[in-house]
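Regression check, zinc ion case 333:
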Amino acid sequence: MPDQTIYFKNGKMYKVYPSDQENWYDAKYLVSDGIIYDLENVLDIKRIPVPDFAKSNPDLMSGYGVTGSLDYVIRMKAGNARSKGLIRESDELYRKAILLMQASGISYDERPYLYYAKELLREGRFQESEIEEKRAYAIVEQQRRAEAYPYKTLHQKLFFQTLEVCKELGRDHLEIMYLYSCCEQCAKYHGRVYSISGKDKRFPKIPDFILETGEIHPGCSHSITSFDPRFNTILFRGADVDAVIISNRPFVDDRTDSEKQAYNDYLKRRKKDSRPYITTDEKEYYRIKYTLPDIAPKSLSGYVRMKNARSKNFMKLRDIAENRGIRISLLNQ
Ligand SMILES: [Zn+2]
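Current build output:
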């Protein structure tokens, strides 16, 4: 069996050779825009240019999708090279993948940008890990800003685009869509149609603060869309209801118990999801492991358990670690 080669044009894969090999994430050779590169050779990896992803023919995506995007394939290869002990090659592949991800046009969250920082942390390369971690967050923050520009959030941008369309088409009505899991503030405003100008007296006028900010409160996740008043119903609690009647109900928090429960569940989920991909516990653990190998717990989960329990052994370990310059946070995370 010859070494596997993967073929790309403008950052999108279109061929795997030999074609009967299904897993192309560990291919040895890459042909990108007609030039061949050895993916297990540092100098070759450095030479791979960032292709013009925007030029790629969407047809080439078929069959491979995101998993055939050059940034994705290089990232997977970085992991595979590392597990084979090709650390320098893997370092170079990860750095290349980070450049490619930024150019790919795919909006990733922090996580894939942090893979490299996490590998470095686990290998005891703490300084490099910190630099890569900071870089990852900076990239994602910058991309978020660019997407929302000239607004602060993408959510606001969508609202002001909607408002612009209303102006162009001479529409005067907005609907704040009903949301099952909704906070007490939003409960007063969602599930209603509003008049932007206030001229249509059948509906309340859209409050000025929403018109100015595009949201009921910062971080609000309600969608606000334009509404065609020829339709006389909107969706509320899963049913089509009379738009005029529902829009004029009292402006109070009228959530049912199950809606309140759904909102509390949502908050819990969000708290869990917002745990960083590289936690403070993990940073502490690997510093202890490499600095104090004789007394380090056997695993990260063991460390987290003793830390959460604030056991005597943990407090002792903490004293020793702090004496060696490792900061141990006692905040919950
Ligand atoms: Zn809300």
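Comparison notes: The CA atoms of residues 253 and 310 lie 41 Å apart. The mean pLDDT is 93. No diff flagged against the previous build.
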